[in-house]
């Protein structure tokens, strides 16, 4: 459903001063609605992907949920024009955008699924506006990707430097290598091909800037501020997020639920959608 229609609905709601800002917010993030139901399910893609990554989930839940999908600035190729290196130097800016989209649509007490970095973005958004969320689902999320002290996030400083240098030297070659690593599959795998294609549709400078923001983020100290119930979903093998990082979320998000999915790789909603759909069915109750 094109959301310019929602902007007209806002106009009719007695809040004409919000018409322009709501319209701009929804257009900026390519917000789309599908399905119907009492429950609102919000789907936010992670680094290097866009809304289409959720297509299997949308199809599975459209008959029972109102589904809102939108893109975050610079996260994938669909929303590059609105990316700003300074504004999006921290993940808090993305969290403000999530709150803005949900507020523009008057969504409250939704179930919000964030993949990868978007998982931590929705966690930050829930700190800012907990009334907007009933439950958070963090798919392949990590509060910190680096190895710091006794914490094992998976990446040493040299690993991060190597990723950035490789991308700066030959972006096309890097996307193929990074895609295989993240998906944990050979280059001819359909999920690898899809992920590599979306990476290559991004501006290299934008992808590099965002990658640095993500890999250098450390949100471990913010986890106690999250009061919305959370479900942490982690594949059994994920080269981007260690099992320890996922368990750290479980241990530091009060009342959270942790489940290891019978799938591998960092993009199970594309590579093993049935497994993710089954897990969401269990946890949306």
From TrEMBL:
Cited InterPro entries: AB_hydrolase_1, AB_hydrolase_fold
Alphabetically ordered keywords of this record: Hydrolase, Plasmid
One Gene Ontology molecular-function label: hydrolase activity
Domain AB hydrolase-1: 41-279
Superkingdom: Bacteria
Similarity comment: family membership: Belongs to the AB hydrolase superfamily.
Designated name of the protein: Alpha/beta hydrolase
